[in-house]
Amino acid sequence: MTEGNFVDYVKVHVTSGNGGKGSTHFHREKYITKGGPDGGDGGRGGHVILRGDKNLWTLISFKYKRHFKAEHGAHGSKSRSTGADGEDLIIPVPLGTVILDNNTGERIAEVTTEEDIIVAPGGMGGRGNWHFKSPTNQAPRYAQPGKEGIERDITLELKLLADVGLVGFPNAGKSTLLATITSAKPKIADYPFTTLKPNLGIVEHRSFTSFVMADIPGIIEGAAEGKGLGHYFLRHIERNSVLLYVIPADADDIKKQFTILKGELTRFNPELLDKKFMIGISKADLLDQELYDAINDECKAAFEHIPFVMFSSVSQLGVTALKDALWHLLND
Asked: Model-level pTM?
């Protein structure tokens, strides 16, 4: 999915370098008429390497470049000189990038740290003719060719690394919350699917602590089966430590909305049930005191063992309590 500078799914073609040829050279000097074989080995072809980079948050660099090729190894030469290895091609990717093989569907790796992952190893260099000298073959006139590099089609799929992921129906108030408590500037408007791409922001907490929050595009019923924005946003939720279900205070049935949201996540990946979570009742500024108290009592009964906070991003009501509750969950 792409929008603007956010790209979270790309297919690329990578090719590692060929190994250099071994040499069939024979030693020659002015007063030596029959020098022995001294052909050197070929150099290794360059690897194609993906390197995790914590400063990247999108796959935008792959938007216009999809083919990557490492350098070939140099051929061997005289005096048993080994050819230079081909230069490795290092491609930086954001943390949270999943690497898949397009042909087999194999999950090659997931980049979670600033590590190097070889996705296409370079071909080995061929051995020079001096390796093949023997008592019965004093002058071998052959050497090994270098092995060819590997061509591979891979998919890069980004799953955002965030401490807290916001889950909710369109227009639940997720983007407004993110804009209120972080420096992120998500698009906010009064129509469904205002958020078409995930947004990240840093929430500053007490005593100079902070955590990362991600606003994910809104869920609709059937999202796990691909309706609406479907799996394009659900995969990002897999990487969040804590989920905050955001439900507006003016919803027809708060408990029913929560049940639907939780059901969509469970159908997509049952392991999401194991994540810590809480509920945020947004838009509490729309309520008078009597209605506020009634909904608060209703939520206490409906969510007996589930933490929840009623808040308003507009009036700041309950926002500090919400941050405290999220911090507690993250560090529990």
From this structure: 0.64
Q: What is the pLDDT of residues 108-122, one digit of tens each?
A: 998 988 999 999 999
Element (H, E) at 3: strand 2-3
Task: Give the model's confidence band at 36: pLDDT under 50 very low, under 70 low, under 90 confident, else very high.
Answer: confident
Residue in 279, 331, 276 with CA at minimum distance from that of residue 310:
279
Matching CATH number, 164-331, of 2.60.120.260, 3.30.70.380, 2.40.70.10, 3.40.50.300 = 3.40.50.300
Distance CA 239, CA 96 (A): 8
pLDDT at 15: 98
Alpha-carbon Rg for the chain, nearest whole angstrom, is 29
3-state DSSP helix/strand/coil % of the chain, to nearest 5: 25, 25, 50
Sign of CA pseudo-dihedral 196, 251, 182, 277? negative
* Environment class of 191 (CB within 10 Å of its CB; exposed 0-12, middle 13-18, buried 19+): exposed
Q: Tokens in use for 183? A: 């420096």
Tens digits of per-residue pLDDT, 39-90?
999 999 999 999 999 888 778 888 889 999 999 999 999 989 999 999 999 9
Domain 2-158: which topology?
Spo0b-associated Gtp-binding Protein; Chain: A, (2.70.210)
Decide if 11 contacts 102 (C-beta within 8 A). yes
How high is the pLDDT of residue 226? 47
Domain borders along the chain are 2-158, 164-331
